[in-house]
Design brief:
It is built from 3 helices and no strands. By secondary structure, the chain is mostly helical.
Length: 53
């Protein structure tokens, strides 16, 4: 959900405000954070984190 917000924010800054920035680098950082989120969710599922033990 946060990734969608970040992408929309970048698009808004670029298209609505016309700001020039290194959007390719920003997109790579967003992609990397999404990958880390997916990797940690797969490595440590909620059932393990929120167990009764």
């Amino acid at each position: 959900m946060m990734v969608v917000g970040e992408v929309l924010l970048l698009a808004g800054v670029a298209l609505v405000l016309g700001h020039q920035a290194p959007f390719g680098g920003c997109a790579l950082v967003i992609l990397a954070s999404a990958f880390v989120n997916l990797a940690t969710a797969r490595a440590w599922p909620r059932s393990k984190i929120l167990s009764d033990r």
